[in-house]
Amino acid sequence: MEKLPKIALPAIFIGVVVLIIVFKSTVTIGSGEAGVLYKTFGGGVVTDESPMGEGFHFVAPWNDVFIYEVRQQEVFEKMKVLSSNGLEIKIDASAWFQPIYGKLGKLHQEKGEDYTQRVLLPAIRSAARSVVGRYTPEQLYASKRDAIQEEIYTETENIVDDQYIQLNEILVRDVTLPPSIKDAIERKLKQEQESLEYEFRLTKATKEAERQKIEAEGKARANRILSESLTDKVLQEKGIQATLELARSNNAKTVIIGGGETGMPIILNDK
User: Fold this and answer.
1) What are the pLDDT digits (tens) for 151-206?
2) Residue 1: is its pLDDT beyond 50?
3) Three-class DSSP category at 161
4) Same domain? 12 vs 98
5) 152: how many CB neighbours lie within 10 A of its CB?
6) Which residues of 70-94 are buried (b: 16+ CB within 10 A; e: fewer)?
7) Strands 26-29 and 33-39
8) Whether residue 260 sits in one domain with residue 214
9) Most buried by CB count within 10 Å: which residue of 26, 195, 214, 264?
10) Which residues cross the membrane (predicted)?
11) Are 109 and 161 within one domain?
């Protein structure tokens, strides 16, 4: 085997070094990501320029690029907090968030890559403790879940507002009460429902009785007015009018004038 020329080994060494330098001098940033440039000999983290966007980039081999996901993300948190009367409540919540793109350098410099653990989750826990502590278990169970979700979001947003994090939403997925408290609340709600149902039936029956009473009084008043208006002369006049109508009828009949106790005509069929 022939020996390599003396220049070959240095050439190979230089080639390897060049490849390493080229490899260290390029970075590819994926979709939904951005890069924070760290200049080893130029002041450290670059905070006064926009982050490096998606795609292929050349950087000096002695510098570093820290890649962050900048699209919306979600973190989950299970918490144990106390209600206003000191009972332990379990809350299962999640947060939708993303780093503020233009502040990515500041976020990296001050909070670091694990900013969700350092900033966001502690903020959510603090807000949840503060909000839930205002309510009783009955309120949390019955009607306040949407309210505490909004309040936790507002308080968390206030905490992270100057922490270079954009909070999009807080979702309270579950509120778990102690079993004994939950059972007691359910029994109370059932009793209240039964009481409301009984009151409804009672009110309905009372209104129906009042309606019947008013209807009966109306009928009695109408009958009284009608009775007072029907004098003997009126009745005789009505009878005469009816007799005349019958007399004009084509039906065969016999009319006896002045018949009966009242002197009203008596009508007899001839059949």
Assistant:
1) 999 999 999 989 999 999 999 988 888 776 756 665 666 566 667 766 777 787 78
2) no
3) coil
4) no
5) 26
6) beeeeeebeeebebeeeeebebebb
7) unpaired
8) no
9) 264
10) 7-23
11) yes
250 assigned to some structural domain: yes
pLDDT digits (tens, 9 = 90+) for 3-23: 556 666 666 656 655 566 666
Burial environment of residue 139 by CB neighbours within 10 A (0 to 12, 13 to 18, 19 or more): middle
In a domain, 3, yes or no: no
pLDDT by residue (tens digit) across 214-256? 888 788 787 777 666 666 666 566 666 766 666 666 665 555 5
- 170's tokens: 């807080």
**The pLDDT of residue 202:** 75
Residue 64 covered by a domain:
yes
Give the residue from 32, 47, 69 where a domain finishes. 69
HSE-up of residue 157 (Cα within 13 Å, Cβ side): 13
Domain holding 212, by residue range, is 179-229
User: Is there a single domain that holds both residue 243 and residue 225?
Assistant: no
Q: Please state the φ and ψ torsions of residue 190, each to the nearest 5 degrees.
A: -65, -45
Considering the domain architecture, whether residues 195 and 224 belong to the same structural domain is answered as yes
Q: What is the pLDDT of residue 194?
A: 62
pLDDT tens by residue, 103-145:
999 999 999 999 999 999 999 999 999 999 988 887 777 666 7
Give the total number of structural domains in the chain.
4
- Within a domain: 2: no
| Share of the chain residues as helix, strand and coil, in percent rounded to the nearest 5 | 50, 25, 25
Q: Does 114 lie in the same domain as 146?
A: yes
Residues 225 and 244 in one domain: no
